[in-house]
Amino acid sequence: MSVRGNEPAGPTRVLISSEALHVRVTELGGAIARDYANDDPLLVGILKGALVFMADLIRAIPIAFTTDTIGVSSYGDGIQSSGRVELTCDLAASVEGRHVLIIDDIVDTGRTIAYVKRKVEMRGPRSVRLCVLLGKRERREVAVDVDYLGFSIPDVYAVGYGLDYAGRYRNLPHIAMLEKI
Ligand code: IMP
Ligand code: MG
Question: pLDDT tens, 3-12?
Answer without folding.
Answer: 444 555 666 7
